[in-house]
Structures are given as C-alpha cells and as structure tokens.
Amino acid sequence: MSPDKISLDEPCPVARCVDVIGDRWSLLIIRDVMDGIHRFGDLQRSLSVARNILSNRLHKLIDAEILELQGASDGTAYQEYILTDQGKQLFPVIVALRQWGEQHLFGKQEPHSVLIEKSTQKPVPLMRLTSSEGDSLDADTTEVLKVNL
Length: 149
Fold this sequence. Notes:
The structure is a single chain. By secondary structure, the protein is mainly alpha-helical. It has six helices and two strands. Strands 1-2 form a two-stranded antiparallel sheet. The model has no long low-confidence stretch (mean pLDDT 92).
C-alpha cells in the first residue's frame, strides 16, 4: 500500500499493518486465497460471510495492493482474486498465527488442519526468530527504538 493511503501520523509499523489487515475477515480472506480459493462465491461459502462485508474487505485488500483481480484461470468470464508479491510476503504472518493457535488454542488430541511441506509431506517446523549469530530472539532479547516526534 502506498504511504499516501495510510495514516502517516502513526510511527509504529504494527499499527499501520493492523489498519490494513488487522480484522478477522481480511486475515481469513488472505488465508483462503493462499489456500487456493480465488473466486468471490467460493470465498463467501468458505468464510460464511455476508456479501457486503466480503466485498468491502476485498476492495480494501486490493487498494492495499495485497490482492489483485485477474481473469479466471480456466478461461471463463469470472474474475479471480490473487495475491500480489506484497500479499505473498504475508505468508510468515499467517504461519505465525497458525502456529501460535496450534500451540495455545487446541487440546493435545484435538484435530486441526496441518501446514505441510509439499515436497516431503511433513509438517512445517515451528518458526523462530534468530539473531545474526543464529541465537533465538524473543521479546526479552529485543527492543524497539522509538521515533522521537
């Protein structure tokens, strides 16, 4: 999204991101498009969301340059929503949310979908942040340098 379309008085990247993709429907639309659902009707069925809400969020994601419309891949008159390169870069965000949910929102034996590597059919390992030396990073070992306004 170009800077002229967002709140420039907000110096926090997290806050700006939440303004663009921070609601339930936007994140679930991005997840579904990543999972291969590209048509309006299919997204509506998958999400069980009202047409007006879905339409609003899709327009917002297009304006934010996360999604774009293209002609249907099967040659029909339909249009499909696809991720832009910028939208594809949200994959680690979706994976981080998925992995946190798996760890904290499901019982040990409770079934849920699993993200796997296509080539090995094995579950994707837990994501972790590392320093330039390869050490694990977390909230206790990092800090944010605030902008002085």
